[in-house]
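Notebook entry, cofactor series.
This is the third protein in the set we're modelling with a bound small molecule. For this one the ligand is zinc ion. I'm keeping the input format identical across the series so the outputs can be compared line by line later. Sequence and SMILES below, as received.
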Amino acid sequence: MATLSAQPRFVRSITLTRAEKFSSSEFYADINLYSQLYKARAPHAVELEVYSVPGLERIPFDDAIKQRFVPTTTGNRFGPSWSTHWFKLKITVPREWAGEPVELLWDSSSEAMVWSMDGVPRQGLTGDKGVDRRVEYQLLKKAKGGETVELLVEMACNGMFGAGNNGLINPPEEDRKFLLSQVEIAVPNKAAWQLFYDMDIILGMAKGLPENSPRAQEALYACNQIIDRFDRRDMENALQRCLQVSQEFLSKKAAPGVHRVTAVGNCHIDTAWLWPYGETRRKTARSWATQLRLMEDYPEYVFVCSQAQQLEWLSKDYPKLFKEIQEAAKKGRFQVIGATWVEMDCNLPSGEAFCRQFLYGQRYYEKNFGARCKVFWLPDTFGYSAQLPQIIKQSGAEYFFTQKLSWNNINKFPNTTFTWVGLDGTKVLTHMAPCETYTAQADVSDMIRSTERNRDLAFSNQSLLPYGNGDGGGGPQRAMLERIRRMKDVDGLPKCETGSAVEFFESVKKEAKGLQEWKGELYFELHRGTYTTQAPIKRYNRKLEFLLREIELAATYCLGLNRDFKYPKEELDALWKDLLLNQFHDVLPGSSIELAHIDARAIYKKVETKAKKMLDTTLDCLYQSSQQTGEDERYAAFNTLAWPRSEIVEVPVHAGDNLQQYSANRNTGYVKVHTDAFAFKDVADSKADHQKVQAYTSGQEIILENDFVVAKFNTSGHLISFFDKSDVRELVPQGQAGNKMKLFEDVPLFWDAWDVEMYHLNTGKDAGTAKARIEEVGPLRATLVVKHALSEHSTAVQTIVLTASSPRLDFHTEVEWHENRTFLKVEFMWDIHSDVATYDSQYGVIQRPTTYNTSHDYAKFEVCGHKFADLSEHGYGVALLNDCKFGYSTHGNTMRLSLLRSPKAPDVNSDMGHHEFSYAVFPHKGTFHESNVVRESYQFNVPMIIKSVSQSALKERHPASLFEIEGAKNVVLDTIKRAEDSDHVVVRMYEAYGGRALFKLKSALNITSIHRCNILEDEGAAVEYNKEEHASGWLTMHAFEILTLKIKVK
Ligand SMILES: [Zn+2]
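Returned structure with ligand:
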């Protein structure tokens, strides 16, 4: 009679759990495979001394080594959060370890850096639990036995993700103590580690492949067999017998034609986020030194590193490490990538700031690493401007890599490998990693997602896997590289190989066919609160972008008139770099901790102070001030915009000036000034104006009226009627009102500082009560002052202004804000019919729906706009301008501008306190495309500069336009600067409305030649120039084109 086999069937769920526990560090860790990873340990081999740095200072190695260290042991706790503790380690290797490799195991429940005794950073360490854990440092490849090794460890009292109080994004716990739980040396068991990594892949396939696939079943069976063979009583032979099974399984090759994955090592280091800039400077050193060590053991390993700013910091703080990185870069192992100064926010910076991100980034890489970057690498930012493709291509880059749209919370983005078509039609090959993360663990699940979530397999059978721990740095781990080796060519998975991003894109470019195209912005359907959070940061950014523009313009003017003038290039570079730094994608969006925002505001303050002084001294070179000459004071108005303008300006009261009206406090007065493009005008030359404005009451209504409009307000300051006199047209719908302050409940699902969710729109309520009164009555300027009690805790004072010379109605607002998860918006309703609204953007505009028809429409319930949003129908429109805000929500004929939020994480004090901002409504005939809205929005943001000058200087220097565009009102000449590498003048202009332009560039300068160039100022084709006419030949531009010209001046 036959006997039955002793082998029972195996059950999938039970086998999977059995296999998980087999390698677990938590369960059965005293007897399972995990328990075998080290053959020997010596906890008493390390003598330990510590020096705790007073306060929260981060000191360099050279200072630390000189301090007095005192003995300490494991089991002690160190703190508070953000403090630093230096340890001296004296390690004696046991004699019996001769011939073995030796590792130091260090767990301080925090981040730490191993230093050699001669002051070279060797490797970063991360303690505590979690995937970021990295506690091993290879001390000796082969011990002699009995030798002594000395080194230093710099312990930073923060985790990889800062020190959030009971949660990732909570404000930091300020006095946390970090436990030094493990300091020992150990001998790794090579066979056990091999099996550990093998099991990782086999178990991953058993879990991740379709349950009924033969390969999944085979993997499950192999797991069972391996664990069966793991005989604790005969470990050495058991491990070899287990490895026979695992290696047989892993030796089966992938089928031809399977998907190909290029695994690119990366380490996302947020330049500030849940930690301040100061900690980032150390994170870069820890993360990158670690990668150099991995390169020593894994010759196939390639690492990419972005953000020129971080490299510049490293070169100053850690010059020896920087040299090592440059060496690794020469060998192609450590590749710089990204092309920009920092990985910036891509909603809020101006068009020119985008250009400078690339200009400073590419020039840095070219100078320090010998070449420009081909890949614009930006895995983690909150939406991508439609103007980026053109700027990428004009900045010497060719490809774009990201993944962030995988976070969309309404629609799945439909493409993986595709052609991104920009606002002007420029095309960029783009890849959004289908693994849907930039911190991939390079495990089986990443491989499976790379095909399963790849939406363009029909056109391109390859994808990029950005692997390596990140956000707080860290980067790839040994385990990831081991997994990639095992997944190189194995049946059941895509083929995976380490490589570089550039090689990946070049291979796609060669092989892909029929790629789909996506036109316009890559709108991110999440983090819509970041257009508004941390209002002071946004305000500084907008104001300083314009201030630096004015210095460059004035300095170039000086250079044009006087070729001996010393253009302040280095000073300007420093200011630009600081401004660009704060455009990092957690700083400008307002999603960092309070410490980071305090740093950012201090940097802004410093930039502002220096920049204002520079502008003043530069203008003094143009027109000497009266203080310099001792003459009578005169005031000049300087128009820094590219077109003539007539405005009512405020000037100090001064005898002889033609003041037609004093201000309410009588210290200043108003005068109407007309200036040419980029030119000065003596304020006293202004003529009395025949246009008048007045303020008066009629019953319960308060009225501001000039030659263009009549604006009626109720006693709460609501705009109840806005009437265009020449068009005979009422703009406020019957029974409705504008300028309504509204409070919304603002409680997102998780990401407090980041998100506002659609449902907040259900909760809008009129904010408190308000009282309006007339302050100024004309004839040049009429004003109302409205005092608001917005809530029990918050107040506002608003000055509403109408001048004699414009239909524009301005609202200057100051708020004392003390709220909790409450959103303040101002709301206008217009009698205008349109399914789209037009928003100002980087060097162009973008139209978005005002309807909620489709999920793509209502996903845009809150969008980013720069200086204006416009709602127009046939024949007429109204723009809502602002001077430092970015969030708009337009639905039907309701336009809202987002003013202030009050999230509590990760900065509990976000936006509390005093705020100042202005917005305006500007009615216009015709549609947006026929309007003057673009120029008006510049004028609202860039007031004429009123400067005290000497009388003789004003007489001597006849005002003349530095530059003028003749023939095309749709071209905006935005930037005038000195060339980077010569004293040529560089001007940058853009087509602002989305059409063709034909024009001539005129100038008062003594021009000898003009060439087209790109953003990096590489010289291109010559442009015809007629000296007698002081004008270029005819120039053409296409819709939303950015054109840069390099001009030689005698
Ligand atoms: Zn990030």
